[in-house]
């Protein structure tokens, strides 16, 4: 290489700290004086369940035959105090996503799918719609800081209550619903003006700490005659202490949402830079339950970036009782698909993606209300692109696939019950994952930072 070629190579060398994305970010900030708002979850690579693998059976373990030997997936949640715990056929639940962020057709589709496979779905911010209550055999009612749409009569109609302290995509931050998604029905349910941006509170209005949370839990128990399980959901950050405080406050079930969790709309800076990965959060949550000798007494649901049956199996092996899925469910419905289905025919949505400045596979424009496939919209025409029966069938297929993958792995590890999966069945592929999950690095007995 001569001097001219060498100089040209150096002059085109990208900067690690100021790559094209960072340059674009700074230029946009300088031009507009505004931060970016978007939907979905973190895009950067984070330590994840992909960094773990199972130790399948060989001579030292005896596998189960998949076609002749059963592997149980039944899951019971809320056994601590509730007189009517939740009984599910599978340990995979549908996370809370609001009517407002999602269309009424989508909420109905989720209820139909959850009922078909024997699991639960969750209301989200803004209250309960008649569509999701009628279609959902098991429905969890969320109590959020905003109290938008909160109705004691609907609380009694629910099968469990989930008190949301925070979300994985934005622990410490409140929700957003931009004006273009606040149609007359959403506005009425939330007691808001139509077409005006809504920002939810980042903390509950009637408590300032765990002692007040205890009072709120007792109020909800009295409201539901102690029948319904009370979940407490936290965004993964100070997970060990948060889980302990939630248990002391009287929760039946803890939901821990890692930073890979999704959102309908929030600041990108939150999504990418606040919270800890789900992988690290699971271990801290389980440590807290074991430290209190409450493992099994209080159930643990893990969410945030759960996509496959392998992810489900790994979360359960690490100590979770169940998982909750949001983004994966949206993608199963058709999010980021090139086409939408109406009356059995596929129609191209590529031009609609281009109109909002994106393309299938890259869209995170949930906040705009212009979802090309009718998932995250309140537009009267766009929402028709998601037919409830079609969406329900796709989500049902997705959940069934995950459950089959889960039982396949459990059988390979010699388990007759998926809840018998254990940490001993796992090893890590990276030093970071080994340290976070407190599992040995594959091929060694070494747990970085612990041994």
Please specify the SSE layout and strand pairing.
Layout: H1 3-11, H2 20-32, E1 37-38, E2 52-54, E3 75-77, E4 86-88, E5 92-94, H3 104-117, E6 121-122, H4 130-135, E7 139-143, H5 152-157, E8 160-164, E9 176-177, H6 184-190, E10 198-199, H7 210-223, E11 230-235, H8 239-249, E12 253-257, E13 266-267, H9 268-273, H10 278-291, E14 299-303, H11 309-317, E15 322-325, H12 327-333, E16 339-342, E17 345-348, H13 350-355, H14 388-412, E18 426-428, H15 431-437
Parallel strand pairs: 5-15, 6-7, 7-8, 8-11, 11-12, 12-14, 14-15
Antiparallel strand pairs: 1-13, 2-18, 3-4, 9-10, 16-17
Task: Describe what this molecule looks like in 3D.
The protein is α/β, with parallel strands linked by helices and 451 residues long. The chain has a single domain, classed as TIM Barrel. It is built from 15 helices and 18 strands. The protein has helices spanning 3-11, 20-32, 104-117, 130-135, 152-157, 184-190, 210-223, 239-249, 268-273, 278-291, 309-317, 327-333, 350-355, 388-412, 431-437, and strands at 37-38, 52-54, 75-77, 86-88, 92-94, 121-122, 139-143, 160-164, 176-177, 198-199, 230-235, 253-257, 266-267, 299-303, 322-325, 339-342, 345-348, 426-428. Strand 16 (339-342) and strand 17 (345-348) form a beta hairpin. Helix 7 (210-223) packs across helix 8 and helix 8 crosses helix 10. The termini are far apart. Belongs to the glutamate synthase family.
Keywords, separated by commas or semicolons:
451 residues; eight-stranded parallel sheet; alpha/beta; two-stranded antiparallel ribbon; single chain; glutamate synthase activity
